[in-house]
Specification:
This protein is α+β, with helices and mostly antiparallel strands and 134 residues long. It folds into 2 domains: 31 residues; 96 residues. 38% of the residues lie in helices and 22% in strands. The protein is built from 4 helices and 6 strands; from the N terminus they run H-H-H-H-E-E-E-E-E-E. Strands 1-2-3-4-5-6 form a 6-stranded antiparallel β-sheet, with helices on one face. The N and C termini lie far apart (48 Å). About 18% of the residues have low confidence.
Length: 134
């Protein structure tokens, strides 16, 4: 096969792979369900803001975290009501350890079979449903 033909085939394969990754996530992984994408965006912002602020004071609670510049794109959609927080109608929980060295965040939908999103100080983001839900 000539050099031009080989380059054309490799280039075509690369375009298809990049398109699949952009529309379906990393090849081999299930795409994040549409209704969880906003939750994943929130968890990315929480992880980024928590890790940026950790150097100064350790991890912080949601009330203080919402003022961090890295939360700018999602902070206005978080509603605080006493000790309860919601994000786009879903229950938001952010628990920080007493020493400020650990945190866990969960975004849980109001319906039992909706997609929940979770993260912690490792920066890994998980999505999941209640067992038995379609």
């Amino acid at each position: 096969m000539g050099g031009f033909m080989r380059a054309a085939i490799v280039g075509s394969f690369a375009i298809v792979t990049i398109t699949l990754m952009a529309t379906h996530g990393v090849v081999g992984q299930e795409p994040v369900p549409y209704d969880a994408r906003a939750g994943v965006r929130l968890m990315r912002a929480i992880n980024t803001a928590e890790n940026a602020g950790r150097r100064n004071d350790g991890y912080v609670a949601i009330e203080r975290l919402l003022t961090h510049p890295m939360m700018g794109g999602v902070a206005q959609s978080v509603v605080l009501d006493g000790h309860d927080a919601t994000y786009l109608g879903q229950s938001l929980r952010l628990v920080v350890s007493g020493d400020g060295q650990h945190y866990q965040a969960a975004l849980v939908p109001p319906s039992e079979c909706g997609v929940a999103v979770f993260t912690d100080e490792r920066g890994l983001i998980f999505t999941g449903k209640v067992i038995g839900c379609p």
